[in-house]
Amino acid sequence: MWDRIEPLMPADPVRGRRWADHRRTLGAIAWKYRTNSPWRDLPEELGSFQTAHKRLIRWAVDGTWEKIFAAVLAAADALDDIDWTVSVDSTVVRAHQHAAGALKRGPKAEASRLTTHSDAPAVG
Question: Whole-angstrom Cα distance, residue 42 to residue 114?
Answer without folding.
Answer: 61
